[in-house]
Amino acid sequence: RAVGMAEGARSAAAQAAAALPDLAEPLDGATVVVAVQAAGAQPAAQRWITRWQAQQPPGHSSPSADAAFSAAVVQTRFGGSRAGLDAVDHALDIARRDGNANDQVRAGLLRARVLMYAGRLEEATAVMGELDPYASKDYRVAWQAAALLRLRGDEALVRAAQDQAQALAGERPLEMAPLL
User: Fold this and answer.
1) Are 88 and 116 in contact (CB under 8 A)?
2) Minimum mean pLDDT among 15-24, 157-166, 171-180: which range?
3) In sequence order, which ranges of 41-80 are alpha helices (DSSP H)?
4) For position 82, what pLDDT does the model report?
């Protein structure tokens, strides 16, 4: 699934995400995060989350950074914009409290993306400013920075940001938003 998404094969990745693995196969947070991003419809994405939640040990009450991020992805892709932003903020709070740098970066990128789609470019710029230390080493951040600058119309800065994203992209196509 991740490879298909990274290579831009969204429809193939969505088909793969529509089929849950065997019930006996344990799921991990990283797999669920990829599957909900690949899912072509809310029911498919929600099934992954529900299956994963069912595999958590009894008494497991506080959501992990992966669980909060997965829920935020579903809400932003298939729910309303206000509820989506609330879910992203919740995921970002959990990532800052319990997560690692990757958890914080992907939640920050999702927040910036939601704000960009809502036309709230100043707020998205502030979020990307928080992620700037990662722009020279994380393709996702470099790509998102270039996309934001393009929306803002900063052509000179767009070229520099695209060059940075291209340097980090490897064989990935720049035309498609990267998997978070």
Assistant:
1) no
2) 15-24
3) 42-54, 65-78
4) 83
